[in-house]
Amino acid sequence: MDQNAMRKIKVSKVTVNMGVGKTGEELDRAAQILEKITGAKPILTACKIKQPTWGIREGLTIGTKVTLRGEKADKFLKDALFAKDNKVNKKSFDKFGNFGFGIKEYIDLPKIKYDPKLGIRGFDVLVTLERPGFRVKKRKMGKSRVSQKHLIKVDEAVDFVREKFGVEVI
Q1: 88 - beta bridge partners?
Q2: What DSSP letter does each residue of 99-110 carry, written as one string?
Q3: Rounded to 10 degrees, what is the CA torsion of 94, 99, 104, 108?
Q4: Comparing C-alpha atoms, which of 66, 67, 74 is closest to residue 31?
Q5: What residues does 103 pair with on adjacent strands?
Q6: Which of 166, 131, 168, 133 is nearest to 152 (CA)?
Q7: CB under 8 Å to 37, separation ≥6 — which residues?
Q8: How many CB atoms lie under 10 A from the CB of residue 162?
Q9: What structural domains and CATH numbers belong to the chain?
């Protein structure tokens, strides 16, 4: 029995995020690490709130991220899941089927060598899943909402990750 083509789940994007908490040399090193592990140019992320006790204010760049799509996203996700021993916690999935996990050290990724100038730093990997037809909620003209039946549920996302990436969900 063929599955409906509109019900097939795919990886929309993989966002690799590294929060530093301050500007300067640390942020530059974090951006270099992200460029090294993803092969894409990172962008800087700005703080959205004021937190005087931590010494950060609104608009201050305190992190960096890279968004990967298509083949690059799948390849990077396979490497990142390998670094996590192909295990993801079920609590990592949100109610829309998206999931995320952290990697403690970037050198855990396969084929990545340690660079003493960059140091050791961890990062977060956030995966956004979608079905065909999700474009209707993002487009500029004629925007509409996606039906409840068409949204991705946690169990469907877990099954997709198990089948496509061979991941054990704990």
Answers
A1: 169
A2: EEEEES-GGGST
A3: 160
A4: 66
A5: 123
A6: 131
A7: 16, 76, 106, 109, 112, 123
A8: 14
A9: 5-169 (3.30.1440.10)
Burial of 80 (0-12, 13-18, 19+ CB in 10 A): buried
Compute CA distances 47 → 20, 29, 126, whole Å: 11, 18, 19
pLDDT tens for the chain, 170 residues long, are 457 888 899 999 999 998 887 778 888 888 888 888 888 999 998 888 887 887 778 877 888 999 999 999 999 998 888 888 888 888 888 988 899 999 888 888 888 888 788 888 888 999 999 999 888 888 899 889 988 888 899 999 999 988 888 888 88
Measure Cα distances from 30 to 73, 123, 145 in Å.
20, 9, 37
Token pair of 150 as six digits: 């068409």
DSSP assignment of 70-82: HHHHHHHHHHHHH
Is there a contact between 112 and 36 (Cβ–Cβ < 8 Å)? yes
